[in-house]
Amino acid sequence: MLDLRKLRYFLTVAEELHFGRAALRLHLAQPPLTRQISALETELGFRLFDRTSRTVSLTAQGRSFLPYARSVLEQVELAEVIASKLANGSAGQLALGYVSSIALSDLFSQTIQAFAQRFPDVQLTLVECASASLGSQVADGRLDIGLSRLSPQSGQTDVQALSLGEERLVAAVSSDSPLASQSEVSLAQLSAYPLILFPADYGSGLNQSIEQLYRRNGLPLRPGPSGRQITSIIALVAAGQGVALVPECTQSLMNKGVTYRPLADPDACAQLLVLTRAEGRSLLVEAFMAVINKRLQARQRT
Asked: Which CATH architecture has domain 4-88?
């Protein structure tokens, strides 16, 4: 295996084409440098330099070998930089799980943007999934972080949940519905219509919040068709298949045929949680948490 130190000596002499100047740059005496170059030539099996009493020049083999030697040293330097970043938590891989309704929020997009700008060497993988599966995926290491609307299951002590607050729910109704002409609507009014939710077996935290809301208010919930993504639910509303309760951020989906209306009920909210492993959080997870906390504090000040 080639000695990296000898390659550095070769590169310096090739740049200077003068053993004396190269020795000064390397903080070496000239005789040891000459011996190291001769040893490298012996290892390679060819001469790198043509030397006279006045001039030093690269041989044809030396010129051909030079870009490879330079590439090796550049890769070593890059590896050293990456190793340092991995050690201090500014490089690596981070898997982030999220539910579809959260992806539309400003908090989500702004946090991703701020984290990517601060840690450009981190490969961030985004995985959309249902709230019910996020806790287990964080616990077993498939995900590093989960953005969920469901608290961890009772007794699941290996997952920690941090509340990011609550998000108001709004009504999504067909634009030709009588409800669309009102300034706000009530749950009592919505209960007369089929309610479009995620499938019952999907494990949606939003479903759970809505079902609890109806129960607290003593209102019947008329199940309508279901969609596995928030965009599908809005498309069903546009098709006149029922109404939906969705987080405020969903209003960014400006589908033709859908009108969003505020709810008169003050307790119509869905929680937003960030899930991490309770112990052994990586430096990258801590860095992401610091970014999301900063974004959350900025939101609270506005």
From this structure: Orthogonal Bundle (1.10)
